[in-house]
C-alpha cells in the first residue's frame, strides 16, 4: 500500500519543517507515492532533515525514485557537496551533462560560489576539458553547460577557467553560424543588451531582425528592448512596446520595466509593473524588494512597512546582498554591516578614511539608496556598510599595489556604491572589476566601463 498525502497534511505544507511521522515511526518505513516523495523532498529546509529523509528513503529503497529531488533538496539546504555524494551513490557510473548542469546551476542560484568552483574543478579532474575535444563522459556539452559554467566562473571570479570556457563557447557559436544552425538569439540579444546608452542603435538592431534576417523577436528580445528603453528613461515607449507584444509578457519583461521605474522614481507605473509581475511569480522576492525601494525613494514609509509585512505574512524572504572578493587566502565573503571578519576593524577604519578623502573630491553620499526612515547622517553611515564597499576595503588591505581587485555581488550594485567606487578608483593603486547581477564594471582612474548604464 502506498502512503500518499491526506488532505489534512496538505494544509500543513506551508510549514517546511513538517514531516509525516508515519514515515519515520518504524525501522522499515511504508512505501510512498511518487508525489509524496516529491513533496517530502521539496519542503525540507535544513541539512539535518535532508540527511534524515535521505536515510529513510535509502532504507525503503525509494532514494532512486526521485534522484533529481534528492539533489535539489541538498543544494536547497546549502549542501551541494552532499548532493554530489548522493548522486555518486545513486549513479555510480559516470554521470551525464544533465547532472553536472543540475548541480552547478542550482549552486549558482543558491549563491554558493565556493561550491560552484569545487564542482567545476571536479568536472575537470574527471576529464571535462574546455577545448576542441571537450566531452563529459562521452557526451558533448550543450548550451546549458556552457552558460552554467560561465555563470559559475563569474560567481567566484575564476578568470582563468572563465577564459578557457569562453573561448570554447565562441568556437561553438562560430561553428553553428558556419553550418547555419544558429537563429541569432544569443548574438542579437548581446548586441541589443550591451548598449551603453546607444538606444537608437539598439532599436535598429531589434527592427532589423525580422526585416533583414527573418528572425522573429522572442520574449528575450522584447525584455532587452524594455530594459534598453527603460534605462534611458523612455518609459512610455517601453510600455507601448509591451502592449504591442505578439505574446504574453514574461516575468523578465516586467522585471525590466519595474527596475526602470525604480531608477526613474515612477511610483504609479512601478505599482502597475509589480502587480503584473506578482500575478506571474507571486513568490519572487525581487519584485517585492523593487517596489519597496520605489516607495522608500518616494518616502512612503507606510507603504514600505506594508510590503515588509506582506512578505513576512506570506513567508517570502528577501535575498540578502552579498559580495565576494578574491584574497591571498581564498575568497572572502561580506554581507551588509558584516563585522565577522578578523580584519573588520581595519576594514571599517579604511572605509572611513576613503570616504573622507573622496568627499574632498566632490563625492556626496546618495542617501536615497539607504532605504530606512532615519536622518541623512545615519543614512550615510548605513551606506558605508554595504557589502561591496566592505569587499573593496578588504581587497585594498590584502592586495599588493597594482594588482586588480575582483569583486562579485549577487545583486545589482547600488547607485551610491557605484559612485563611491568610481571616486575611490582615483585615489588607489588598483583597478576594480566588480561583477554584479547585471554586468561587469571596470573602475579605473575615476571612470567605469559601464558609463553609467547598468
TrEMBL record:
This is DYW domain-containing protein. Residues 362-454 form the DYW domain. One of its GO terms (molecular function) is zinc ion binding. It holds the Pfam family Eplus_motif. One of its GO terms (biological process) is RNA modification. InterPro entries: DYW_dom (IPR032867), E2_motif (IPR046849), E_motif (IPR046848), PPR_At4g14850-like_plant (IPR046960), PPR_rpt (IPR002885), TPR-like_helical_dom_sf (IPR011990). Belongs to the PPR family. PCMP-H subfamily. It comes from Escallonia herrerae. The lineage of its organism: Eukaryota, Viridiplantae, Streptophyta, Embryophyta, Tracheophyta. Keywords: Repeat. PPR repeats lie at residues 96-130. It comes from the Eukaryota.
Amino acid at each position: 500500500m502506498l502512503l500518499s498525502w491526506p488532505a489534512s497534511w496538505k494544509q500543513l505544507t506551508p510549514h517546511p519543517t513538517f514531516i509525516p511521522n508515519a514515515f519515520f515511526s518504524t525501522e522499515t518505513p511504508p512505501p510512498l507515492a511518487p508525489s509524496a516523495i516529491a513533496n517530502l523532498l521539496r519542503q525540507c529546509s535544513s541539512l539535518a532533515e535532508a540527511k534524515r529523509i535521505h536515510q529513510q528513503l535509502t532504507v525503503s529503497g525509494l532514494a532512486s525514485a526521485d534522484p533529481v529531488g534528492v539533489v535539489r533538496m541538498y543544494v536547497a539546504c546549502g549542501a551541494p557537496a552532499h548532493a554530489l555524494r548522493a548522486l555518486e551513490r545513486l549513479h555510480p557510473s559516470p554521470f551525464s551533462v544533465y547532472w553536472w548542469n543540475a548541480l552547478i546551476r542550482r549552486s549558482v542560484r543558491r549563491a554558493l560560489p565556493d561550491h560552484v568552483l569545487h564542482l567545476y574543478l571536479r568536472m575537470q579532474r574527471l576529464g571535462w576539458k574546455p577545448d576542441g575535444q571537450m566531452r563529459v563522459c562521452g557526451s558533448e556539452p550543450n548550451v546549458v553547460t556552457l552558460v552554467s559554467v560561465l555563470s559559475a566562473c563569474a560567481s567566484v571570479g575564476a578568470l582563468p577557467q572563465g577564459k578557457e570556457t569562453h573561448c570554447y563557447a565562441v568556437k561553438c557559436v562560430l561553428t553553428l553560424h558556419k553550418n547555419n544552425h544558429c537563429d541569432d538569439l544569443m548574438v542579437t540579444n548581446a548586441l541589443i543588451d550591451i548598449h551603453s546608452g546607444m538606444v537608437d542603435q539598439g532599436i535598429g538592431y531589434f527592427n532589423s531582425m525580422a526585416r533583414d534576417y527573418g528572425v522573429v523577436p522572442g520574449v528575450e528580445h522584447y525584455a532587452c528592448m524594455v530594459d534598453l528603453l527603460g534605462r534611458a528613461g523612455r518609459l512610455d515607449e517601453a510600455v507601448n512596446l509591451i502592449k504591442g507584444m505578439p505574446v504574453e509578457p514574461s516575468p523578465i519583461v516586467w522585471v525590466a520595466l519595474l527596475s526602470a521605474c525604480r531608477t526613474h522614481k515612477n511610483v504609479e507605473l512601478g505599482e502597475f509593473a509589480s502587480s503584473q509581475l506578482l500575478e506571474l511569480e507571486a513568490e519572487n522576492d525581487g519584485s517585492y524588494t523593487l517596489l519597496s525601494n520605489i516607495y522608500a525613494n518616494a518616502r512612503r514609509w507606510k507603504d514600505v512597512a506594508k510590503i515588509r509585512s506582506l512578505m513576512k505574512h506570506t513567508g517570502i524572504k528577501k535575498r540578502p546582498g552579498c559580495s565576494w572578493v578574491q584574497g591571498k587566502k581564498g575568497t572572502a565573503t561580506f554581507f551588509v554591516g558584516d563585522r565577522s571578519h578578523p580584519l573588520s576593524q581595519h576594514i571599517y577604519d579604511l572605509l572611513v578614511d576613503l570616504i573622507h578623502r573622496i568627499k574632498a573630491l566632490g563625492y556626496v553620499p546618495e542617501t536615497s539608496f539607504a532605504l530606512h526612515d532615519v536622518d541623512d547622517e545615519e543614512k550615510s553611515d548605513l551606506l558605508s556598510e554595504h557589502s561591496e564597499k566592505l569587499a573593496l576595503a578588504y581587497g585594498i588591505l590584502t592586495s599588493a599595489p597594482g594588482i586588480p581587485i575582483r569583486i562579485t555581488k549577487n545583486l545589482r550594485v547600488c547607485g551610491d556604491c557605484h559612485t563611491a567606487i568610481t571616486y575611490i578608483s582615483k585615489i588607489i593603486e588598483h583597478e576594480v572589476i566588480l561583477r554584479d547581477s547585471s554586468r561587469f564594471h571596470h573602475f579605473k582612474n575615476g571612470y567605469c566601463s559601464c558609463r553609467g548604464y547598468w
